[in-house]
Amino acid sequence: MNRPLQWRSFSNHAFHEASFDIRTAAQPTALPYSSLGHAETTMYTVARTSAIFRAQVTRTAATTSHLRARRHRMWSVELEKDHKFKSPSEIIDPAMIDRLLEESKEKAKDRPLVREILAKARERAQLRGVPRGEDEHEYVQGLDLADAAVLLNIDTQDPASKPILDELQATALDIKRQIYGNRIVLFAPLYLANYCVNSCTYCAFRGQNKHIGRSALTKDQLVAEVEALQKLGHRRLLVLTGEHPKYTFDQFLDALHTIKGVETKPCGKIRRLNVEIPALSVSDFRRLKATDCVGTYTLFQETYDPRVYKRYHPSGPKSDYGHRLLTMDRAQTAGIDDVGIGALFGLTDYKSEVMGLLQHAHHLDKTYHAGPHTISIPRLQPADSAPDAIAPPSPVNDDDFRKLVAVLRCAVPYTGMILSTRESADMRRELLNMGISQMSAGSKTDVGSYHKEKMQADENHTQVDGGAKSLEQFQLQDHRSVDEIIGELIGDGFLPSFCTACYRKNRTGEAFMKIAKTGKIQDFCHPNSLLTLQEYLIDYASPETRVAGEQLIDKESKTISENAQRALKRKLDKVKAGERDLFF
Q1: SS3 80
Q2: Could you report the per-residue pLDDT of 352-377, keeping only the tens digit for each?
Q3: Crossing angle (nearest 10°) for helices 145-152 and 111-125
Q4: Closest CA to 440 of 116, 112, 184
Q5: Which of 22, 309, 414, 572 has the fewest CB within 10 Å, making it most exposed?
Q6: What pairing do the DSSP bridges indicate for beta strands 8-11 and 14-17?
Q7: What's the CA gap between 167 and 580, in Å, rounded?
Q8: Contact 26, 49 (CB under 8 A)
Q9: How far apart are alpha carbons 419 and 443 in whole angstroms?
Q10: Would you call 343 helix, strand, or coil by DSSP?
């Protein structure tokens, strides 16, 4: 009886069954063992094994090459395939948003009803009327979607609406003062690279823009950037980059460690790094968390309306609405619960975008018991070769922008609200009185611009039309220096803060809320802000700012409890004697 040949492969000088498609190997004619002598059989098996081994090596190399190529095409590849998340349509419901906004148009004209909603927002900010369990973490739903829709439908162009709009803004300011006091947290953005494969129609970094110079910071340039920021007094950075294989996620992770290691005299050291980078997989979120460098992960959905999303993101990884929307779910799954969301106002109806932000926030809170730590509210500004930035499809006027800021503060009282230098200095001054708790200062949105006025062309810098072009992502409206902003904040009665203590003392989530409910958070955050301001005044402030700042510290020190005052004085004396990074 003739037996078929059994192909074998060598591994560590032992025989193992080969499992593969033998059609990929160079095969001699298949012959039955009975037709071969012993010597012939041995030679045949060895020859066959060699061919199969070569085929296996070729296949393995091809697979590795494919994975490598895929990794180069995609900024972040998922290695954990079994995670299941809600459908995007279960998170953002455009039909519900449309219905609530339509149903609330007449209700917005009912002044007593609007005042009831504002009173409800005040009560919930004081954690009265909040369902049991919801007051244990930082995300508190100050207003439900229906109430938010009523406030959003107040007509800002109707002169008769001015009194109720004033009440809305006053409510927002009261809520902000109750929770944050007069503190304003300051930070700066740091751009690492502006290469990008996406096609966002509102961004100068879009891949189709051939007029912009492309650049990525070398390690030496990165160190110089961080040193320059430290010498301005910054302690918090928001680190950003585009999505492109020329600047990989691995390079980004290396950059985080570089930033953390930079220190300048007299006391320059970055104490908190937040990041705003492309959407990541669960597996890469785990790698980001493992750096132990990152505070908040931020990603904007840009527009929450899936019906128009593709129009503004026609190609590239970012064109996948659902994948982008589920980014925060992947972050939470990987253990990153400190996340920031945002919408880019001007792409579609601002009222719908606010409702989308709230639906997203509610989903995160309900699913993971951790709503967004921050919400950002950027408004479209002109950008090079970005048609929808030059002529916004749904521009938001100043009155409506003020209103949406106030509505968000009422709706999410314990969530940080961030305002960038996209807005003018005048608008930023106004919005500080409507709920903003964090703002950028002395910002630049082009690569390498903190340590050089212009980057010189080098191997990492593309020249276009014979000369280096602008690297700016969008046009800034507030060009004041850090010291000018701090001086004006002090003059307007605000307390500039570089504090990062709560994160390092693990006073977040439930621990933060336990302190907040007792009203004792002022005995932590307020003195810590004063300590960081004292550091700035000694090390970096202009003479005028230092005088005004010292007066503010003396005044604000008297607003905390007597025990806290004594402890603060001891630490302030240590700061004046040269110690740094002291906190409660």
Answers
A1: coil
A2: 999 999 999 999 989 998 889 999 99
A3: 130
A4: 184
A5: 22
A6: antiparallel
A7: 42
A8: no
A9: 12
A10: strand
